[in-house]
């Protein structure tokens, strides 16, 4: 391809319409990420597991003895290890098909179905709930891989930070809106004639319906595009996909800046994902707050994060994405440090901690996505974003495993969450080594680093 060839079509109006449709991918999947993965699933699974063995008992599975309090961390760990294997292959498949929106919707609906089946998580069936969550989490990540690969196709490089940040803002707005409804249902479950357990299960079911319904908007609103610049390999679709994956992994050495960023992202995003996955458990089990209080705090996080994502996007336009991401990483270091000493049952401290998470949460993730897109050669968007999400979800087991092991050794979530500061320090140091202008040049993209 010519160095001067644009990576998206120049017509602004159709592109704007597609961008608006694309925003709803974040709006849809955030229902699962907030209500289920972020707030309700982990503490509820712990309760089901404790009901099966008692608070002082241990779960026995495949010869392993597992503390109920560590079970969600190990479930997420298994899910992310599986995704490390599956997502790169998915990226190769997605780059070879002209029907990315069908893949997007298909994975979303499969994930929504698995989420809906969590309604039947009750009694002592912790293993069933664990398996359904793993399926839902894998499908959710697969849908996001495809969605992110569409971002460079519907936006110019100059638009990328803004479009990515607005997408994240939509995600926090959508997830927060449903979370507000679920917050009311869990908080006032007695007035509604519901038990706490039934209110939680209905909330997880509502996330499945939300996810399945709103994904129709990008499915119908984004047009498919023929694949370009794929590697010529022999065989059927699966064989060609493995062949392209092998070629891309080999070719990645030609893009050392992209590789350095992926290593940096592996560490600092591990910390972010583990804080998100463990926040509700920390609030309920360590600080002693009720589920309704944690839901309300998480709602605050969603509200603040919506503005944080937009604010970080604007700051990136002025100072550059790399500097703003580094500032966010410093913020995360402060958050895990404060979590080590925040008093039990002190609501104001917990709310301030949640607000701080909201400020840095959306911005760091949105800018990481758009920043990495600058280093991707044309025609390999899905495959490179699959590597990105293999790091995002597939290798984030480092963080959850660290959290689970430290908890098991100390019987406290405070040192477990503070231990994550190592991931932010290492990730920040690696990000300092990323040369933005050189990475853009290596990928053959047009935009000059600002």
Quick description:
The chain crosses the membrane at residues 21-46, 66-90, 102-121, 127-154, 166-186, 198-217, 294-312, 324-342, 348-372, 413-432. This protein has 450 residues and is an all-alpha fold. The chain is built from 17 helices and two strands.
Describe, in plain words, how this protein is organized in 3D:
Helix 10 crosses helix 12 and helix 11 packs antiparallel against helix 16. The chain has a two-stranded antiparallel ribbon. The protein is built from 17 helices and two strands. The two termini are 24 Å apart. It has one domain (12-443): Growth Hormone, Chain: A. It has 450 residues and is mainly α. Helices cover 76% and strands 1% of the residues. Residues 1-10 have low confidence and may be disordered. It is found in: Endomembrane system.
Q: What is the H level of CATH, i.e. the homologous superfamily?
A: MFS general substrate transporter like domains
- Rg estimate, integer Å: 21 Å
Output the strand order for the largest sheet.
1-2
Please tally the β strands and state the result: 2
Any low-confidence stretches, pLDDT <50, length ≥5?
A: 1-10
Q: Helix segment count?
A: 17
- SSE pattern, N- to C-terminal: HEEHHHHHHHHHHHHHHHH
Quaternary organization: single chain
Largest sheet: 2 strands, antiparallel
Alpha-beta content class: mainly alpha
**Annotated CATH topology:** Growth Hormone, Chain: A
Distance between the termini: 24 Å
Mean pLDDT: 83
Q: In percent, how helical is the residue content?
A: over 70%
The general outline is globular
CATH class: Mainly Alpha
- Estimated share of beta-strand residues: under 5%
- How many domains? The number is 1
| CATH-defined architecture | Up-down Bundle
Transmembrane segments: 21-46, 66-90, 102-121, 127-154, 166-186, 198-217, 294-312, 324-342, 348-372, 413-432
Membrane topology: Multi-pass membrane protein
Organism: Nocardioides faecalis
InterPro entries: Atg22-like, ATG22/LtaA_families, MFS_trans_sf
